[in-house]
Structure formats: structure tokens, C-alpha cells
Amino acid sequence: MFFVLLDLTPDERHLDLDIAVSLTKYRGTLYLRFREDVLLINVSWVSLSSKMQRVVRKLTRSTSISRSRFLSQVLGSRSYHIDNVINDIGQPTPASHPQLLKDGEITPGISSEEYILRRKKLLELLPEKSLAIIAAAPVKMMTDVVPYTYRQDADYSYITGCQQPGGVAVLGHDCGLCMFMPEANYYDVTWQGPLAGVEAALDTFKAEKAYPMRKLREILPDMIRGSSKLFHNVLTATPEYMKLDAFQKQASRNNVRDLSTYTHQLRWIKSPAELKLLKDSAAVACQALLLTMLHSKTYPHEGMLAAKVEYECKMRGAQRMGFIPVVGGGPNASTIHYSRNDQKIKHGDLVLMDVGCEFHGYVSDLTRTWPPCGNFSSAQEELYELISETSKHCIELCKPGASIRQIHNHSVEMLQKGLKDFGVLKDIGSSSYHRLNPTSIGHYLGMDVHDCSMISYDCPLKPGVVITIEPGVYVPSYFDCPQRYRGTGIRIEDEVLITETGYEVLTASIPKEVKQIESLLNNFCHGMEVENQSNLRATSS
Questions:
Q1: What is the pLDDT of residues 96-132, one digit of tens each?
Q2: 365-to-354, 400, 444, 459 alpha-carbon distances in Å
Q3: Radius of gyration of the CA atoms of the chain, in A
Q4: How do residues 455-503 score in pLDDT, each as one tens digit?
Q5: What is the spatial distance between Cα 505 and Cα 513, in angstroms, rounded to a whole number?
Q6: pLDDT tens, 41-61?
Q7: Which of 46, 97, 101, 404 could form a cystine bridge with 105, CB 3.0-4.6 A?
Q8: Taking the alpha carbons of 308, 314, 318, 322 in that order, is the dihedral positive or negative?
Q9: What is the distance between the alpha carbons of residues 286 and 263, in angstroms, rounded to a whole number?
């Protein structure tokens, strides 16, 4: 789509109503709308001048604006040039968002050349005469007509850079990248905005071939029949191609495999551009969490803290949260993925917050546990110091050649011994430990929170891999142990980049030592007067 921008004088704003009326009557691919003092003329890929003449004729048949008045008041006194045309493909481009993307970039910081290189590497991994089919993630609906915020499938995004639904990407040794793109219609554009089409597939995403989606049933079967092995993204598999006879025949011959085995190998080791985005994502989340910690005494409610951290992330450029923030106060912190976030936080309780944001497709994930009142109790401090020491030891083990499994086993030994010393565990060999911590020490991190699930935790780590280290203990209120420890959940989670010589902690800016946390909270809150406490009350369920 093109947008032609025409500046309007104050005297011309009265045309708004007349042109708005015309929108309901002219159901073509070209329409007009106002934004402040600018008239936007949305034009499909046609000659602008001839299209302008046709739309004016249609408008003057159904509105009170005469053709001469429209031309003289809106178009006649000024000219429009190709320099004023913005190609809107439904996602940021260097033309539409020059503050985000440089020329040649598809994602901020990631060039079209890097996407081409990714596709080349994927083809090198696949057997000869293979064909890979990757569908875009479907739109998920909240209600009949209200969609959830759209998030692209990581593999589709990694290969194409396209952030919109409805497409199917096909990658082969002979054809290169072939993209089947959705066709925009009046209804979709009116309600959802412009979409990337065939032209964007070729010009922006650098596909070798591109076709409208209606051509898929005609073109894709021949591509499938010409391949010896067929791979597809199982998570986003769509009937558009799965019901094709050619696909069904390949499946019946056991020639269809899950593509993620190969895409995850590529995504596992991050490029310098990806690492920059991951570091930026971590920095945003760290700043947001730090401010939330500082205000946790002011906002003594899980929901308020969840809102605060999301606000701070988005104010720093995050597009969305990486997941629903975990904000567990008191005994709620012993629920590992607690997400209700609807309780008041009692004085003296700990708050466990697990949070991450998505920054141009790359996700952060970190956890801190702290007492909003400013001081740990003795029991809280004992458990916290155990988790802190385990975290330090496990991070020191992060280096090329180590594995998440090895680091996990070390964490289990440390936590079991410490919990037995406190009397929380009666026996190191007891299965009760797994009730207190059933989780792994960490996971891979990247475009997804739990990234590259096809890569084993036994795989030796390599430079460029990012993992989390997140020891924790979760003691339910009913657990058979000394009363002082019951109903306590503590986790410390950091992001760790594996380097050539060891590691780099990407979330080191957030304090995690007991003395640091207490000093931070008390020094900040000491000079802070809370205004209008009545406005800060929250209703607990």
C-alpha cells in the first residue's frame, strides 16, 4: 500500500465529514481518511495519477463534494510527489520508521543480508532436494471478533522477517525462498490496516519468488513432487498445504519431518546482531524491574506491581511482555508460574517477580525476590542466601563445553545439602526435594522464552548461546518442615551469555545481595513521601 500525504489548511478541515461519508459508500481498494491536519490517500499498487482521477469521480457521485471543489480545495493548490509516498506493509520499515531501522534492515539491527544468510545455512543443513514449508502463526481469538495481540512464530520470523499472519514460506535448493502472501481486501485493510503482499515479499523480505495465497494450490504441489524430503513447521501447520494431495502422499511415504530440528540448531547460537537485541531486551527489563522494586512499598499489591513493570518495559521500547509477569507475594511465591497477580502484599512478606519483555523479537527473562518492607526476616535471609550462593556457583560453571544438565546437577547437590542443614529436608536422598524445586536450573533464551526446545540440555554449550540460571526453592504452606520456612518462595534468575572464555551476565545491573537489596529499598523509601494513599488502595479477592 501507498500513503500519499497532503497537508491541509485550517479552512479545509470541514471536508472531514464529507469524505468520511464517502468512505461508507466507496468500497474499493482506495479510500481517504483524516489524521490531524493531514489527508491520507491510501492507494494500491497502481498509477497514482490515474487512480486519483478515478476515485475523485466515484467520490463526487456519492457525496456533497463537487469534483471541482474537491480538486481545487484539496488537490489543485498543491502537488504530490513520489517523495511523499510511504510504502506501508503493516510492519516497520526504514521508510516508515527511520528512527528504528537503517536502510537494508528488516528487523532493527538485522539486515536483509543476515536473513538471506540464515536461509542459506538452513539449506546447507537440509538433505539434498529437500523442501521446507513454514507457515506464519495463526491469529488467536479472544472472542468472536476480538483477536489477541499477534505474535509471529519464531521460525517463520527467523527465516523471513515478516511479522504478519496469513503467509506460507517455502524454502528449497532450487527455488530459494518462495513466499505465498495474503491478499488484502477492503474489509481487512479497514479493520486491521495494511498487510504485506507479494511486492513486500520480493522487495522487503528478499524472496526469490512470491505469489498471492490463492496460487498456493496451483504452484506448491509441483514443488512438493519435485522434492525427495519434506520438512515443515509442525507448530504452525496449516490446512492450506497439509490437505494437498502431494503433501499427503509424501506423508504416507514417511517423507515428512519436523523442520524445527534444523531451525533450532541455527537459532541456538546467536549472531552479533541478535546478541545486541538480547542485551537491549535485558537492559529494558532490568531497568523496569529495578523501578518496580523501588516502588513496591508504595504499591503493595501484586496487580499494581505487574502493571508497573509492564508500563516501564513498554516506555523503554519493548513491544510486549515476554510472558505474563509472575508477581507472587508471600505464599503465592511458592507457586512457580503464579500469574493471578490479584492479592495484597502483607507487611513482612517477600515478593517474587519473574519478568521479561520482548524487544524486536528477542526476549528477556529474569527474577528477583525481595521484601517490600525493606528487611529480610532471619528465616527468609537463610533461604535467600542459600539460593544466592547456588546462583553464584552455577554461573561460574557457565563456559564452553559445560551443559545445562551438568550445571543443574550441581545446583541440586547444593540445594539439597542446604535445605537439609536448615531442617527443611529430612534426608538428602528424599523425593521431597522435587516437591520443593521440580524445575531445571535454567533454559535456553532467544526469540522464545524457552528457546530452541529441540536442543538437548545435555548438549555442550558454545559461544553465542544464551541461557538462564535460576535456582529456587518453593516451600508450600502445608509442607512438613519448621514453621518459619513454610509458605516461602525464592528464586534468583539471571541471563548468561556463553563467551569464548567463559560467560557474561546480561542482567548483572539488578542487585541480588541481601545487603544491596535492603540498602536500595530503605534508602529510596526513607526520603519518599507517598501522596494520596487512598488512591493506591487495591481490592484483594
A1: 999 999 999 999 999 999 999 999 999 999 999 999 9
A2: 7, 21, 10, 21
A3: 28
A4: 999 999 999 999 999 999 999 999 999 999 999 999 999 999 999 999 9
A5: 15
A6: 444 333 334 555 555 555 444
A7: 101
A8: positive
A9: 29
